[in-house]
Design a protein that fits this description.
The chain is 37% helix and 10% strand. By secondary structure, the chain is an alpha+beta fold. The structure holds iron/sulfur cluster (2 copies).
């Protein structure tokens, strides 16, 4: 069954950079994205993106939980706890330096590298070992790409001083190890609630651990490594270059093993590695048929038409022909709810538990002329329905 499933994933025999140029019609005057314009950073300086109590709600002492289902004291306590280590580690230098590691700045927790470099005679074997280690540290999938500097942020934003300074990573860090961190499928079925925010928080927590531990492993081998989450660069195009999935209408990476229900972490390094090739498994064609995310988005932030090169506002890159979510509309909805939303992940037909064989058949159907049938079945079997928070808390399979 596994080989049947994997036979639907087609590696693209083309250099990753060329593949992206062609698939996304990247214009030659494409400019690197300024991190200051990311919607979460805009919330710090742009009055039109007012976060109100959104960020405060992640500190339980500052926030009074609501009584509504999925937003009570238990739900917020659980969600905020899921973010705890990511916040503590990420903000350890905030007061002094204004950095938020993992979000505006890469991590600085590695201890100095080994003075002796391990000899590498076989790059394929080295790559295998690094991938094994990454999976042991929490990654569900691992891919390698060369660092394509187009995806590195042009400026690094400091949330304390509100300065945005020109930014680059050391040129010798030629490779990026892209780490797919699966989120919890059952928790993600409860989006959008404070409870479901724990799915996001836990994903970041595992990503923090996985990327930093892997970076430390590489520095212990005598090479350089930088651990990163959402800081430093745009992760989605890099993950596509590393052969980990395709781009969906909802603006997220769709992976063949965990669908869109993932977070992405990464490690930049100079250890010699073999790069992966991009893959296709029919996502673009399926998204052309399906519009479930666009229909399900409560604020209509997801486009229904064809991919466009012009983004809805300056919180997204210009000059890449793609479906782009309206980040302003999306974030406004999050602020109104005081928690993150991922209805677009919940309703996506690729959001399935692919450890079950019948769901693997579904992903093959999505990549065939029977894709409309797959969509019908998905609707009929109510895969996208929201699971009530109370039902999640009462689920006896976790006792
Ligand atoms: S996260 Fe929610 S509001 Fe934002 S695009 Fe997805 S469905 Fe829409
Ligand atoms: S919900 Fe449908 S259109 Fe949206 S990303 Fe998923 S497959 Fe594509």
């Amino acid at each position: 069954m596994l080989s049947f499933f994997k036979s639907g994933i087609k590696p693209i025999a083309q250099a990753s950079k060329d593949y992206l140029n062609k698939s996304f019609g990247i214009s030659p005057d494409f400019k690197r994205f300024n991190q200051r314009n990311d919607i979460f950073n805009r919330a710090m300086w742009d009055d039109s993106v007012h976060p109100k109590a959104f960020f405060k709600s992640y500190d339980i002492t500052n926030y009074k939980p609501k009584k509504s289902k999925g937003f009570d004291h238990w739900d917020y306590a659980f969600r905020n706890a899921s973010w705890h280590m990511t916040d503590v580690v990420g903000e350890m230098h905030f007061e002094k330096e204004g950095t938020v590691q993992g979000f505006t700045d890469y991590y600085s927790v590695q201890t100095p590298p080994s003075p002796m470099q391990v000899p590498i005679d076989d790059i394929n074997d080295c790559t295998k070992r690094i991938k094994h280690a990454a999976k042991m540290f929490g990654a569900g999938m691992v891919g390698i790409c060369k660092v394509d500097e187009r995806w590195i942020y042009s400026h690094n934003y400091n949330r304390k001083t509100q300065e945005a300074k020109p930014f680059d990573i050391p040129k010798n860090l030629k490779y990026a190890i892209m780490l797919i961190i699966p989120m919890d499928y059952e928790l993600s079925k409860t989006y959008p609630t404070a409870l479901s925010g724990a799915s996001t928080g836990l994903g970041y927590g595992v990503g923090l651990h996985c990327a930093n531990t892997l970076a430390q492993f590489i520095t212990n081998l005598g090479y350089q490594a930088i651990a990163s989450l959402n800081d430093t660069s745009l992760s989605i195009p890099m993950a596509i270059e590393a052969g980990l999935g395709e781009y969906g209408r909802h603006g997220l990476l769709i992976t063949p093993e965990f669908g869109p229900n993932i977070r992405i972490a990464k490690v930049f390094t100079d250890i010699p590695l073999t790069v992966d090739q991009p893959v296709e498994f029919g996502v673009k064609q399926f998204c052309n048929t399906c519009q479930k995310c666009a229909d399900g988005c409560p604020v209509k932030a997801i486009p229904k038409g064809e991919p466009q090169a012009e983004p809805p506002n300056f919180s997204s890159s210009k000059g890449i022909k793609k479906w782009t979510v309206n980040a302003e509309k999306c974030f406004k909805f999050w602020v109104g709810m005081n928690t993150d939303c991922a209805i677009c992940i919940r309703v996506c037909p690729y959001n399935k538990d692919f450890s079950k064989w019948w769901n693997r058949i579904g992903i093959r159907l999505a990549n065939s002329p029977l894709r409309k049938l797959m969509l019908k079945l998905d609707n009929l079997l109510k895969f996208s329905d929201r699971v009530a928070a109370a039902k999640w808390w009462e689920d006896k399979t976790r006792d």
